[in-house]
């Protein structure tokens, strides 16, 4: 990775978080090793850009010192893209470091949602626009009169209600140094490589079970070692004179010989 073009996939369960911490350790180790390789072997920049697409970033566990890593990996030809259902997920995971992580992101894409804190912060980030408000007044009395007023007011570029009800085919893109703008979502069906996906061609569906074999196949010509055991209550004695203690005895380190 970084030396040549390659692709690495981390596949986790979306219902059982038992082993998600392994992915968090893998990400932390990957960033550290890539930065060291870029500095020690390539003079500070990897020859091939490494783009990390981190889907379900809130479900893979907390990566230690991620707020520092996102600030230093860009100069090594490493980019990070976080996918979140709501901004509150990142705040719940990284607490006070959430603002630091978001501050090091050059672009933010809002695809739609209804989470209150995300909508509120986005509405404030978009800023305001200047509008003209024209009012007419009429007074009916013995001497009738008319008046007209023209005022300049500030209005949110998009209110929270407009963000919540934004059509599904639109998105909001914020780039560093540019004003945010409303854009159409790209239609993936029109992509020239769409025909190579499993959605377009059912015959190329990736099946991980074909790569993983959990069954041990014994070779008839393979030499094995057989141990004979004598069944007793305590302890179990093997023919190699090694005593294996019961599980209850493992709590006492002094009892292990």
Task: Describe this entry's structure for a reader.
The longest helix is centred in the N-terminal third of the chain and has 21 residues, at about 20-40. The chain has about 260 residues and is of the alpha+beta class. It has a three-stranded antiparallel beta sheet with strand order 3-6-7, with no helix packed on it. β9 and β10 (about 245) form a beta hairpin. The chain has helices at about 20-40, 65-70, 85-95, 100-105, 115-125, 160-165, and strands spanning about 50-55, 80, 105-110, 130-140, 145-155, 170-175, 180-185, 230, 235-240, 245. Helices cover about 25% and strands about 20% of the residues.
Strand content: 15-25%
Radius of gyration: 31 Å
Assembly classification: single chain
Most strands sheet: 3 strands, antiparallel
N-C termini distance: 45 Å
Write down the overall mean pLDDT: 81
- How many strand elements? 10
- Sketch the topology as an H/E string, one letter per element: HEHEHHEHEEHEEEEE
Structural class: alpha+beta
> What low-confidence regions span 5 or more consecutive residues with pLDDT below 50?
236-250
Q: How many helical elements?
A: 6
Which bin fits the share of residues in helices? 10-25%
Global geometry = elongated
User: How are the strands of the largest sheet arranged?
Assistant: 3-6-7
